[in-house]
Amino acid sequence: SYEGNDACMTKPLHIVVFVDSMFFPLFQNWLLYFVRVCGSASIYSPSESNISLEIVCVDQDISAKLDFLDLRCSKYSSHFLSNSLPSASPFRQHVNSGGRFLRDEEQELAFRSSLWVVRMRVIRSMLNENRDIVLCDVDALWNNDPFPSISSILSFSYQDSAKVAIISSQGKWPPEVSDRWGSALCMGFILLRNSEYSRSLLDGILSKWTALEEQGPSSMAQMLKIDGKGWVRWDDQYAINMALFQSPVAWKPIEGRSQALPKRTSKRSWWDSAFAKVQTTDAPKPLLNASLAYLGKVQAQANTAHLVLLPRNSFVRHCLLHPFHGNMTQKLANRDRVAALLEDDQTKIIHCIGGMRTSGSAINKIKFL
Q1: Is 19 helix (H, G, I), strand (E, B) or coil?
Q2: pLDDT tens-digit profile of 45-67?
Q3: pTM here?
Q4: What φ, ψ does residue 285 adopt, rounded to 5°?
Q5: pLDDT at site 60
Q6: S-S: 94 plus which of 2, 99, 203, 364, CB 3.0-4.6 Å?
Q7: In what order do the strands lie in the sheet with 259-260?
Q8: Of 356, 353, 361, which is closest to residue 96 (Cα–Cα)?
Q9: Which residues face 309 on adjacent strands?
């Protein structure tokens, strides 16, 4: 019922969310925040608004739930509803309701990886439609219009803005990257511009994964083991960050001087390195100031592409002062912290949930929110 201001962007922009039926309550909550900021025209009358929303349905049951809101699944939902995905709805229900992992690790690996790969393929197909895409998780809540901040950040580096391929919030996953940089790109709120670099980055990741799939589940499972013991939590955020990590990125504060990273000495290929633990070093971490945006320069064949990391104090990823499961005093402190962020006009996106306690579990995210 919120009217909003219908003024979220000065030029057309496409917002994409992926939803399955277990996450529908989270999506309803997210939609309330989104409409309050951007208005309902972007959902029900996209032609009358500068911004539009596309909902990619991950399972069959979500379509009926969206009908309740007079919404429809994107045409790209067919990628998830095809017969090419593993038949693992019991597994999805088990994990999203807060259950532990299945004993069949190879089955779990095949299911999780397939979902993330399909999501990347959908995003890649959307880029072919000649538009910029904002990918948003349904637990990354819109508190205030984020786009004036993004435009302002880009204006400080207007000579470089045409080369910016990716504009991202900041997170900590994977630790191999954040331990070295001080942060990593977060897929919970990320703008992928329709650029040659964005398309080639996804193409490279997908082609390597396709080659791995052709070797079968056992080979895939072996590749994703760490030292023959634990499992890598492979997802699109892991893949994109590790791909970028293999190309030396020179970071600088958008309003400051350059902070180039030490040169990497590893000669291994991207695929050889992507699933191995990177040794932590005492090298300086360039991305530590939460109030600053950062511009990253990466060499892409003959061209130079740029990345932008948004300031963590406006695009908030980690909100908690204490552990997710704490005593009552800690829980109240966390509640007050989140309430203060929601009341702050400088908070644009608030994406508090993180850690293994809530990762991938719809029921735990709902409890937290």
Answers
A1: strand
A2: 656 566 788 999 988 888 889 98
A3: 0.82
A4: -95, 120
A5: 84
A6: 99
A7: 51-57, 13-19, 133-136, 184-192, 164-171, 303-309, 294-300, 249-253, 259-260
A8: 361
A9: 168, 294
